[in-house]
Write a structure and sequence with these properties.
- With 621 residues, the protein is α/β, with parallel strands linked by helices.
- It folds into three domains: 200 residues, ANL, N-terminal domain (Rossmann fold, 3-Layer(aba) Sandwich), CATH 3.40.50.12780; 133 residues, Rossmann fold; 143 residues, GMP Synthetase, Chain A, domain 3 (2-Layer Sandwich), CATH 3.30.300.30.
- It has 21 helices and 28 strands.
- An eleven-stranded mixed beta sheet has the order 1-2-19-20-21-22-18-17-16-15-14.
- Strand 5, helix 3 and strand 6 form a beta-alpha-beta unit.
Amino acid sequence: MTTTHIPFREVPYLPLKVNLDRRPDGTIYLANGQPLKPGPPHMLAPLVKWAAERPHQVWLAERWPADPSQPGWRELTYAEGLAEVRRLAAAFLSEGAGQGAPLMILSKNSIDNALLMYAAMWASSPVVPVTPAYALLSQDLVRLNYIDRLTQPKFIYVEDGAEYQRALNGMQLAGRLVIYSRNAPNVPRAVSVEDFAGQAGGAVDAAYAELTPATVAKYMLTSGSTGEPKAVINTHGMIAANAKMIRSVWDEDRLDAITGGPQVMVNFLPWSHTYGANAILHNMLDWGGTLYIDQGAPTPQRLSEMLRNLKEIPTTQHTTVPQAWAALATALEQDGDLAEVFFSRLTSMAYGGAAMGQDIYERIQNVAVRVTGERISLSAGFGATETSPTASNVHWPNAAMGLIGLPLPGNVFKLVPTGTKLELRVKGINVTPGYLCNPEKTAEAFDEEGYYRLGDAVRFVDLADPEKGLAFDGRTVEEFKLASGTWVSTGSVRMSAVSASGGILSDAIVCGLNRNEIGLLGFLNEAYCHRLTGGPLPLDALVRHPAIEDALRCSLAGHNRTNPNAASRIARILLQTVQPRADLGEITEKGYINQSRTQDIRADQIALLYSDAPAPGKFLI
């Protein structure tokens, strides 16, 4: 079924306005014509606002306990949340909180995580959210220890003291306080979240009054390509403004009228990354919405929990990564009750972090049309940890995958001709002042006009009609030459291959430097592949399954028919039996594969890809 001519459910976007300035040297400056809506000066102001205006509305909810056999949610209202944040802020202040006393967070998403995060920021202590993989999966703890030395946290929060004991053993904890939710760790000084308390009096009010847009709120970590992540300075002003930038293209009153009340989201994206921490957690706080913390994910072990939560909570918006959309598409097709709940209040859907195939979009829309009689816009956003994170998005009803949209009010895009591409740079209220203790990388990151260099290339969908937006055109730093001298655009080939796979691949490494042809190291989307195999199988069985090989060979052959030239034709693929590891730096801060880092780590796999030796999951196209 094609959905092309079926109308979209109403999305109350404001009218498109684009300001475009072309310079004689080919440089293009692009800005949004809509004004930036006024916003709060810092990240704590929305909590105070909504606690006064909507004291009984739920701010955060989580499964309590986090057990599939337990049906209930632990809910925290805005009034309760403010009281808890003030209590914890008082405790931080009594322990010497401030700009020079960061809080490191080692935890999955949780209510305690959020309360401590906002309480530390209230007390002016920057927060350092660290992916749990650095502490739980890493064998040598090199990255965790590097981050510890770089940021020098005075406070460390661990959700479970026993679980993180090994990581804590590798830290110098003298003079530092460890806060925990469960299972006291064996450290010189530790206190539970429940017992970490102070009097929420004049000192707390004074600390709130001292917060400014320039106050450092967080040090958000990049994934790093060499094993040493950069700590991106995120100020209160950056993150607070970014929330308003996103909503400056919405008619918010109309949206609340359409959805019948405040916004509701169910989301699992981790708060150790800018996407989940700023674009989800803080945006929902700024919006005065309700966030249901999802402990599910699009993995075989956690998919059932993700679907359980989405089947129970009707959301008004849903944004996630393409891998999750692929798994959700299959579930929506198979479970009519899930589809009824999921589409009942939904006004918009979005993805980020990686390319998403048009096939996944069409499958989701087919179910939406069957259930509601309407399409629901599914679009993308774009940005980086350095842009806190959203610099642009598709703010119009959208049916085309692969767009990054147009810049949001509050920042300006600078498109610089670089070879055959347009390199994207950005300046605005949401852009970082630089990296902690790294003046050299800070200087390299900005051009002579103060525009941040993202390292990405973009192209206009239609140069004659800029309002159709921009599309991602690969990484400017990830081009390489084949042995023939032909240039290959890694980003373009990767996006095209993943899209052509129709959901089979979650990501891919594009290989071929000084080789005769392009090859891929392919990473399977396990949840989608189970649809082809008729049931769950371990990853090492999936890579050798004939149904997977047949479907992938056919889809990549289709890619080659439309991309026959050497610069984009894929000649061979080797499916990976080990998924990319965040603790090794194989996953970027944007959520997709770090091409250069992964090629270094998997050099043996690249050698196997181009050898004559047979291997499971290896075949020619």
